[in-house]
Amino acid sequence: ELISDRSDVQYVCTSEIFSQAANLQLENYEVVCLLDPPPLSENFWQRIIQYASNGGGVGVFLGHRARLNGFNETIVQQLLPGKLKLRSRYATYLRPRNFAHPALAGLKDYAENIPWKVYPVWKYWEFADLAADVYVVARFANDRPALLERPLGRGRILCLATPISDPLEPQGREPWNLLPTGPEPWPFVAISNQLCGYLAQQDTESLGFFAGEIVTLRLAPKQGVSNYVLRDPGGESIRRTLPPGENAIRIGTTHALGNYRVVSGGNSGNLERGFSINASPDLSRLHRIDLEQLTNALPQERVEIAQTLKDVELYVDIGRSGRELFSWVITLVALVWSTEHLLSNRFYRSAA
Question: 147-160, pLDDT tens digit by residue?
Answer without folding.
Answer: 999 989 888 999 99
